[in-house]
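Thread: Newbie trying to understand structure tokens

Hi all, I'm a second-year student working on a class project, and my supervisor (Dr. K.) asked me to get a predicted structure for one chain before our next meeting. I've only ever worked with sequences, so writing a 3D structure as a token string is new to me. If someone could post the tokens and maybe explain what I'm looking at, I'd be very grateful. Here's the chain:
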Amino acid sequence: MSGRVIASKAANYLVEDAALRDGALGPAFDLLDISTKPVEQVLATFRQHYNGLWVGGRATLTDTEVTLAPNALNRSIHEELNAIELPLAMITSVEVEFGWLTKIIALGTPTHVVKLRCFGAHKLAGRIRAQLP
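---
Reply by user tm_fold:
Sure, no problem. This is what the structure looks like when written as tokens:
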């Protein structure tokens, strides 16, 4: 992450290829003698519905980029889960979409749409728009 921090808040972001580490759920479920199969089925349904998984972490806006970084728990249970660093110069649109509990911010680029959800989405989206070149 580079630049001066303008805003930082807890957020979830959509990761298309998020995958749990082998055995990530095992120890807790083994201790409780519970099958991981129902959890795996729920995750598969979420993946299919949302085209990925919502990963908890932090959204940080600087004067040069938006960074979406996974929290420690998600880093520990997912394979190769890295932060997304999106330069402001690449953002072509900032839209706020419907969400049941938290609204979704869709950051358009020439090739992808990066989605994050958080409380105060309208305010954060406005702050991102204000920083665009």
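A couple of things are worth pointing out once you decode it. The domain at 5-131 is CATH 2.30.29.30 (PH-domain like). The two ends are 18 Å apart (CA to CA). Feel free to ask follow-ups in this thread.
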